Structure formats: structure tokens, C-alpha cells
Amino acid sequence: MNWDDTGFLLSKNKFSENSLIVEVFTKDHGKISGILFGGTSKKIKSYLQIGNKLYTNYNTKNDNKVGYFKFEIIKAETPFFFGNKSKLSCLTSALQLIKTLNPEAQPNSKIFELIENFFIILKSEDWIKNYILWELKLFSLLGYNLELDKIVTKKIENDKVFYQLNSQSEDRIIPNFLIENDFSANDEELIKGLKLVSDFLDKSILKPNNLNHPISRLQFLNNLK
What we know:
Layout: E1 2-14, E2 20-26, E3 30-36, H1 42-45, E4 53-59, E5 67-75, H2 85-101, H3 109-122, H4 127-141, E6 152-157, E7 160-165, E8 173-174, H5 187-206, H6 215-224
Parallel strand pairs: 3-5
Antiparallel strand pairs: 1-2, 1-4, 2-3, 4-5, 6-7, 7-8
Helix pairs in contact: 2-3, 2-6, 3-4, 4-5
């Protein structure tokens, strides 16, 4: 089997002195892993950054065996954020989620589009808020919809709108921007939003599938505190 596609680099790990095991999320073939011969060479290392967009050629003699990659750079997305520790941490976290939550070799063009939109979000003014909404969109595309608007009650006190979680075991205020996207959010509300999404990720997605919370996401949260 031999095919060409466009993909984003998700991970790379040393396989031998000169080769790497890499994973990419491609437009037409989903998440694919394989061997990249010569991946440690200076020529290839210069553009083999996690998140970069690559022209991808994949070749395998048997569907049950690991295949081999050849890459050409399409767009170097990641270097744009090298000077921003928080955004670089966010990038690592987002792509680790893509890697962890998506099954192997299952095409999903909407996930591919979501990755493309992620790099637009990182360049936006309200990037943290938009990233939180991006995560919720990712979970929804994978079949895990939080549907906050159905489990909160809208309240107004002193002309201020807020939303309260409908739960007998928990009295929790939900940041407005998670219900109405046009609401602005301060740093405290953004942290609350991330923690709420983290709880949902743990309880509804990771633990039921015996998965651990990605370390890169915990590091991203710590970088924002």
C-alpha cells in the first residue's frame, strides 16, 4: 500500500541511530504511525517539529506491518510560537490530546480541519478562551458532548448574569463564556473553565477508557497559573 496525503506531525521517538518512529494526523487517512529513515539527520530535523504541516508519503507491503514515511515540509507552524512559552505548551497539549484520543487509521476530516483551526486560534487575541472552546469541539467530534447549556440554570443578580450547575452534589458556577461564546472572560474565569473541562475530560473520556491525563496538558495548566 502506498499513498500520499497532508498531515500534521503529532509525535516522534527515536527508533534507531538514524531513524524515528513518528505519528501524523492526515487529512484522508487519520492518525498513522510509521518509521522515518534518516529522521535524525540535520536536513530533516530542521523541519520535523511537532505541529508542522507535512506532505506525507506512506508505504507498507502489508497492512499488518509498520510502514515507512517520507516527508516534505508544507508549512512550519510551530516555530512561530517558539518565543511564547504558554502558547508552545498549549500546542504540545493540544496535539497530545489528538494523539491520545484518536484511534489509529480512522479518517476524520473534521478533526483535521480542527487542527488547522487550532493554529489560527493560537494567533488570536483571546486565544486561551478560544482554545477552551476548541477542546470542547474536539470532544464533541469524538462523541463526548458536554452540553453545558442543558445542565445549568441561568440566574441574574444585581444586573449580572451567571450560570449555576444543576447538581445535588455540587454547587458550581460555570463561567459565562462556556455558555454564551460572545462573553469576554478574565484570567480567573479562564482557569475555572479549563479546570471544568479537565474534570469532564477525566471523568467522561479518560478514566472510562483507562487513559491517563496527558502530562503535557497538566504542564499547560501550570504555565497559566
